[in-house]
Write a structure and sequence with these properties.
two-stranded antiparallel ribbon; mainly alpha; about 325 residues; 14 helices; two-stranded antiparallel sheet
């Protein structure tokens, strides 16, 4: 038991349990099945983004573009669902299937993530600056692509993955579980997963030991972009529309989830499971504040304080270890 409680994820997990207990006493609606599924459904989107953000932060980087990548990828998926192309010579029209739309959105997200990685590794631009620039570019491209108006009436497979259920659990939750399991195993057993920790722990030592640091970083940012695109597909499917301003502020929730989950912003320490707990804390906190009818303005203040406390505790624990 002592060994379990000493794990970095134990503290955020204890905080999550205490938060759930407190909110359940303050609101009788919190522990209802409908509300708990609603929390999981909302958290699933942040989880997809946060898993990618975990990989980035473990290398000592940051990605501020994920919210804008989410919006652009969702818009691309929605736009492809209602469009195609015709070949006049053979009088044939080709449309995109649901899976084709998803692949197009994922490819767009991965391409933007790879662009982040190239700017950071090849041109030695700090991750904060590089991803800030891509954030602005992707948001502008979203506005240009949509004309500033939502793309609606998607139908087909979008309705199922957005609002459908499987074995009594919402589809977005199943998708988030798949992402969590895949990357938890990847970080534990894949060689590249160990390289990611090594780069965050000491990049120069990793380079001298033969690790291709730039290649690993490029892969990490590409994965983060693809997972942001997956979250964009989920948001678009759930709303049955692509909103030009979708994903605004999502990068902050993702970073908060990773830090609250026990990861170090300097890299080298953290886990996917810790991030899951951090994302659940953010989700439960958001839901609890709404149930308690707290002003949206105060909600922002409280979330900011939680993030600051998590960072301070991270710095304090780093000095004492």
């Amino acid at each position: 038991m002592k060994k379990i409680l000493s794990q970095p994820v134990a503290k955020p997990l204890a905080a999550l349990l205490l938060m759930c207990i407190a909110i359940s006493f303050l609101s009788e609606n919190f522990l209802t099945s409908d509300n708990l599924f609603n929390v999981l459904r909302q958290t699933s989107i942040n989880l997809c983004i946060s898993v990618g953000m975990t990989l980035v932060i473990l290398t000592g980087g940051i990605d501020l573009s994920v919210g804008s990548v989410l919006a652009l990828s969702g818009a691309i998926a929605a736009g492809m669902s209602g469009n195609g192309f015709a070949i006049a010579g053979i009088d044939t029209y080709f449309g995109f299937t649901f899976w084709g739309c998803c692949l197009g959105a994922l490819a767009a997200g991965a391409a933007l993530g790879a662009f982040n990685g190239i700017v950071i590794t090849k041109f030695k631009v700090p991750p904060f600056v590089a991803t800030l620039g891509v954030m602005t570019i992707a948001r502008g491209l979203t506005m240009l692509y949509t004309g500033g108006f939502p793309i609606t009436n998607l139908g087909g497979g979008f309705e199922f993955i957005g609002t459908g259920w499987f074995l009594g659990v919402p589809m977005p939750v199943w998708i988030a579980i798949g992402v969590i399991v895949a990357f938890a195993l990847y970080m534990k057993y894949a060689r590249t997963g160990r390289y990611i920790y090594a780069i965050g722990g000491n990049e120069r030592a990793a380079l001298l030991s033969g690790i291709r640091v730039n290649r690993v970083k490029l892969l990490v940012y590409t994965i983060a972009g693809a997972l942001a695109a997956l979250a964009g597909i989920l948001v678009t499917a759930r709303l049955d529309s692509a909103q030009p301003n979708a994903g605004t502020g999502y990068e902050l929730d993702a970073i908060a989830a990773v830090v609250i989950g026990g990861a170090s912003l300097s890299g080298g320490r953290g886990s996917v499971i810790g991030t899951v707990v951090g994302a659940l804390i953010i989700g439960v906190l958001n839901n609890g504040l709404v149930l308690l009818d707290v002003s949206p303005f105060w909600q922002q203040v409280i979330k900011g304080c939680v993030i600051l406390v998590a960072v301070v505790l991270d710095r304090f624990s780093s000095k004492t270890t």
